[in-house]
Design a protein that fits this description.
Helices cover 26% and strands 31% of the residues. It contains three helices and seven strands. The radius of gyration is 13 Å and the shape is globular.
Length: 124
Amino acid sequence: MFSVGEIVLFYNRDAEKPKFHLCVSVDGHYLFLNTSRRFYDDAFIFDCSRVPLPASETGKSSVSCSGVMRFTDHDLTKYKAKSCGKVDRNFLLDLLAFAENCPALSPADLDLILDGISNAIGMS
């Protein structure tokens, strides 16, 4: 339903409110975008100017690499998912470099991210 690199807003069951997610595979895999003031070791931190979203209070946001979430097209329709723009190739390359060294990612989740992004940007 969405392409790799798209930022998608939809209802997050855990947070019980709409949240931003980054699509990392054409098979419906997403990472959570976080705009809080606290960032964790599993987070790819970036300047808000790199994404097509309003800036956070700190000017920084992050992609949480603590786990890949899978959503079907049915889930995304149910949670009223909508695209909010897309990150560029350089952002995806930087995310790949971070993910390759992120100890919080399981080998299976790392493979999903590497395969999804690499295929989308023509690295495979």
